[in-house]
Amino acid sequence: MPVKFQDYYEVLGVPRTATQEEIHGAYRRLARKFHPDVNKHKDAEEKFKKVGEAYAVLRDPEARRRYDALGPNWRTGQEFTPPPGWENVHFEFHPGQGGAEGFEFRDFGPGGDFSDFFKTFFGGGGLGGFGGMGGGPSGAGGGWPADGGDTEAAITISLEDAYRGARKTVSLDVAEPDATGRVRRATKSYEVAIPAGIADGGRIRLAGQGRRGGGGGPAGDLYLRVTIAPHAVFRVRGHDLEVDLPVTPWEAALGAKVDVPTLDGAVTMTVPAGTQGGQRMRLRGKGLPKRGGSHGDLYAIVRIATPKNLSQRERELFEELGKASTFNPRG
């Protein structure tokens, strides 16, 4: 019997080429928007059900593959008859894969709230995770378990902690439901292991510390995005570091051995004769740690420092040099 075709990509507002992450993101956004506990508009619940139905198919790779095999030429509302071989097709969807953040799916009734297209296409059963087809009964603590959403927060650490690693107590403002179910702001502390070599912009995962799952589902994860605080001496460039190295004009011209600061203490570096201002000199392995045990490098940027207050003898020597030298930096 012909039924009306349902364009699930159109329902979620994503292209047919959408990735699973894009499909999941669109579903979470629309589920929050149309959930009946949040949106009291008269057609919100119907839209919420359509969004859940679309996601039930497109989130499952095998179901999506078979759905896509119908081709992109069908349009929403067109009469559709499944091709031979599609009768009694059943898919088992497992609850708890990417549910709406903080929401539970309600009991949709004994199969009657899924579209005819859905029931025809999937054989009308075998769908764990939806009311009437594996979900708990409405009004009896029902709703199938849904994963909690991942959350993200920003923390700032010192360059020394990024270099050596550390354990820190981090306090964050979080939104948590109280005993009445109302969401309230609270301060929560976490013991965080900062791995040596964490890069600026890197993330630290705290498993199970994100939003609570719905219907008894597992909580999501909390990701801490790391910012390395500006340092008084060093600049961070990924796993490499930069430091300014002041040298005198005669050290640059004649060559010299000078001390260069590192995060492990000063080391001696040779400045070759004829070194130019702005020249980058590399100290291998003196940067931040990397995976596998290697380190980034430290680059000393030469800054030629000219004395501001000359003694009488210094002035005489510079005047003699000026008269004797044929060097012209301007060509």
Q: Helix content range of the residues, please?
A: 10-25%
Poorly predicted parts: 90-112, 124-143
CATH superfamily of the largest domain: DnaJ domain
- The proportion of strand residues reads 15-25%
Quaternary: single chain
Strand neighbour order, sheet with most strands: 8-9-13-12
CATH topology of the largest domain: Helix Hairpins
- Overall pLDDT confidence: 79
Computed structural class:
alpha+beta
Query: Which shape, going by the Cα principal axes?
Result: elongated
Q: What is the count of structural domains?
A: 3
Radius of gyration: 32 Å
Number of helices: 8
**Could you state the order of secondary-structure elements as H and E?**
EHHHHEHEHEEEEEEHEEEEH
User: So, CATH architecture of the largest domain?
Assistant: Orthogonal Bundle
Characterization of the model:
This protein has 331 residues and is an alpha+beta fold. The protein is built from 8 helices and 13 strands. It folds into 3 domains: 120 residues, DnaJ domain (Helix Hairpins); 78 residues, HSP40/DNAj peptide-binding domain (Sandwich), CATH 2.60.260; 83 residues, HSP40/DNAj peptide-binding domain, CATH 2.60.260. The protein has a 4-stranded mixed sheet with strand order 8-9-13-12. The protein has a 3-stranded mixed sheet with strand order 3-7-6. Strands 1-2 form a two-stranded antiparallel sheet. α2 runs antiparallel to α3. The protein starts with a strand and ends in a 7-residue tail after the last helix.
